Amino acid sequence: MGSVSRRNYDFRAARQRREQLVTLYRAGRRLNPDNPEWGWDFVAQIEEIDREIEEAHAKRAAGQGDSLEKQFENVIIPIIPAWGTWSKGAGESADD
Questions:
Q1: Of 18, 35, 63, 92, which is most buried, counting CB atoms within 10 Å of its CB?
Q2: pTM above the 0.85 mark?
Q3: For residue 56, which of 90, 23, 1, 7 has the smallest C-alpha distance?
Q4: Which pLDDT tens digit goes with each residue over 3-59?
Q5: For residue 11, what are the contacts with CB-CB under 8 A and spacing of at least 6?
Q6: What's the rounded Cα separation, in Å, for the pair 84 and 96?
């Protein structure tokens, strides 16, 4: 399983592991349909992976992940108007 504390969370590996666990759970459920307690460990692992993925998405959205676009989203860029930047030079009038 991946770790949320790492800088780059491996979403692909986490989703693949989750799919493996779901497949194992479903196969075992078909073999033991009468036992309601069977598979609780698979369910716990699947829920843990889901929590890790949600936490990694939340960190990425908050700008704490590896997305540079999110990290620099709140930078203020001053807007300088195009008019009034001409200075009076030799042979130029103020109206130009």
A1: 18
A2: no
A3: 7
A4: 444 468 899 999 999 999 999 999 999 998 888 888 899 999 999 999 999 999 888
A5: 2, 53, 56
A6: 10
Q: Is 3 left (phi over 0), alpha (psi -120 to 50) or beta?
A: beta
- Cα(17)–Cα(94) distance, integer angstroms: 70
Tokens read off for 95: 């109206």
The structure tokens listed for 36 are 């309601």
